[in-house]
């Protein structure tokens, strides 16, 4: 089975082209592909399938030719992946399946419009973040208060006083299961300048990752909220680089690098 490997600010993905919609991707297969010692290694899998051949997305076929079937490293099926959409778009253009410029990608979180050139950064319209109040997490034994932001998938973005570099995110943070029955992605961030934050994240289903696109937007929303703002542009520094988030009255944008780095054959037939 042919695969590619790509990443967006080091949030890395195994890409599986599936033009005939024949791959039967089980959670065990996904976990094996994402295993960093026994497999290819990644934070998640992006299956690239024509929207019209995918029953769960067929209704979106008129708007978007391709459906991003995203899976977390543990095989779970989340609603959205912001960096995944950017890498998915880069793959479509590099493979000649879409022309550079602007086009739509279908996701479980709805249709997302992307903008990219033949090379360089990829921007995705992430839609309107939904702010659902406050909640708390226990991160590395420290209680953190944050903003509950839904980006299609659930986030808790917590401003912390101590430098984010000093936290151990190796274990899943504790959180309120009444607020997040399906689990949550937890971000911690420091303000490090004017409209500039430093963020780390523990992702549901993938553990600590070096970047998270939906998490970067959620963090910008929480930082803006703390500053009494609702619009503006935020630089979000993560372990894997920097992304830019623009908050507008009725939507949000995520921009940053997205690259393909390898391709090969996975011996198993799925
Ligand atoms: N890394 C992603 C988010 C992937 C999904 C997340 N782990 C979840 O379970 O909701 C991003 O770039 O947004």
**Distinct compounds present:** the ligand N[C@@H](CCC[C@H](N)C(=O)O)C(=O)O
Query: According to CATH, what is the class of the largest domain?
Result: Alpha Beta
Global shape: globular
Number of strands: 18
Strand content: 35-45%
At CATH's second level, what is the architecture of the largest domain?
Roll
CATH topology of the largest domain: Diaminopimelate Epimerase, Chain A, domain 1
H/E element sequence: EEHEEHEEEEEEEEEEHEEEE
Detailed description of the structure:
This protein is globular. It starts with a strand and ends in a 5-residue tail after the last strand. Strands 5, 6, 7, 8, 9, 10, 11, 12, 13, 14, 15, 16 and 17 form a 13-stranded mixed beta sheet that branches. With 270 residues, the protein is mostly beta strands. Helix content is 13%, strand content 44%. The mean pLDDT is 97. A hairpin with a 5-residue loop joins strand 6 and strand 7. It has two domains: 2-126 and 256-265, Roll (Diaminopimelate Epimerase, Chain A, domain 1), CATH 3.10.310; 130-250, Diaminopimelate Epimerase, Chain A, domain 1. The chain has three helices and 18 strands. The protein has helices spanning 27-34, 82-94, 213-226, and strands at residues 2-8, 11-17, 44-50, 66-72, 101-107, 110-116, 122-125, 130-139, 142-150, 154-159, 174-175, 185-193, 196-203, 207-209, 232-238, 241-247, 252-256, 259-265.
Q: Could you give a short description of this structure?
A:
The protein is mainly beta. It contains 3 helices and 18 strands.
